[in-house]
Amino acid sequence: MIARCLDCNATLTKDEKECFTCGASVIRKDASSVIFGKRFASFLKYAVILSAVATVASLFFDTMPSFPKCFAATLVLLLAKSSAEQMLEKSKGL
Ligand SMILES: [Zn+2]
What we know:
The protein is mainly alpha-helical. It has one domain. It is built from 2 helices and 2 strands. The protein has helices spanning 29-60, 67-93; strands spanning 3-4, 11-12. The model has no long low-confidence stretch (mean pLDDT 84). Bound molecules: zinc ion. Zinc ion (ZN) binds next to loops. Zinc ion is lined by residues 5, 7-8, 10, 19, 21-22, 24.
């Protein structure tokens, strides 16, 4: 597998710790999974907010899904968000 610099897309050798083209530190697999985790966590944050808004809206509008459905979805998203954040905390400590 060929590694590529995330900043300038230059091809990197296995042993390089810095990109020789732009000087950015080479991001290894574990680091990119942290980046993915961060994106996933921020996506979940927005999903929780949207779901919470939908839950409140379901109380007032008949066109929304029923309140228990929205409430359950918000709870599930909150759980997913907190476990994603816990995973991020753990990977920081490594
Ligand atoms: Zn580079």
